[in-house]
Amino acid sequence: MHCVFCRVKDSKVTNSRTSKDGGSIRRRRQCRSCGRRFTTYERIEITPVIVIKRDLSREMFNKKKILKGLLRACEKRPIPIIVLENLVYELERYLHDTNLEREISSAQIGELVLGKLKDIDEVAYIRFASVYRKFSSMSSFLNELQSLK
Prior knowledge:
single chain, alpha+beta, 3-stranded antiparallel β-sheet, 3-stranded mixed β-sheet, 5 helices
């Protein structure tokens, strides 16, 4: 590992610690040349999940977009942001753990989000569904409300 101060390649690890979530290792290092200390992190490299959009274009999965949509659906609802962040985290873990092909449609992601959101808050569920499913009439909106009963 190169020293961040003098760029010499020789450093030693003085302390290693696993992160709380187990996803990375924090290492304190000391340069053998200049003696200064610095921290490095070792993380597992995860293959990105590709989302197939409705127009068949592809883009990398972006958890910020999901969280933004959830925040909009949960606006003025008594839902702590940590609950939504956990929902997005669980979704991301699920996608990485189960998606062997590394491609998933946006429709599948939307259904997964709706399934989790339904258990959290019904009003937020309807709001998210109205945008995600593109309700075009009052009857489609009412049909969704009937399915909740």
